[in-house]
Amino acid sequence: MPVLIDDMENELSSGRHANMQPIIGIFIGALNDWPVEILSIEDYLAQLELFIQTTATKETLEAALTTLNFKTEAWKVESITQLLELYLYYDAQLSVQAILEDVKSKINL
Predict the structure, then answer these.
(1) Distance, CA of 72 to CA of 40 (rounded, Å)
(2) Which DSSP category does 33 fall into?
(3) What pLDDT digit, counting tens, does each position of 38-75 carry?
(4) Which of 11, 12, 29, 83 has the most CB atoms at less than 10 Å from its CB?
């Protein structure tokens, strides 16, 4: 079942799972900054991975940033930069999808 941005926003505002709040906030921020409207985190990851042409990991996200024009693709830059903040909480070898699965399992989304 897809995780809608509304579900994540509701979880964030609920105050439950305090240890997961920063991570949920990162996902919400990244989704909101992507240049096209997205309703679910799964759709976002699909668009992101289509754009970077590989699995989203810390390494591939950092590589993608080097290819972007910061003036004309500022929304993508901001979105990817926010996602990189996930690696303050997770091992750099994990994919964004693996991080999402961990979050979903911990907060029952």
Answers:
(1) 25
(2) H
(3) 989 999 999 999 999 999 999 999 999 999 999 999 99
(4) 83
Structure tokens belonging to residue 40: 């679910």
Distance, CA of 100 to CA of 66 (rounded, Å): 24
**Are 107 and 24 spatial neighbours (Cβ–Cβ below 8 Å)?**
yes
Extract the tokens encoding 50: 């289509």
pTM for the whole structure: 0.91
Phi, psi at 57, each rounded to 5°: -130, 175
- Distances, alpha carbon 20 to alpha carbons 15, 62, 77, 82, in Å: 10, 23, 24, 15
Cα→Cα distances 105→10, 56, 101, Å: 16, 19, 6
What amino acid occupies position 7? D
Name which of 14, 40, 46 is nearest 27 in CA terms.
Answer: 40
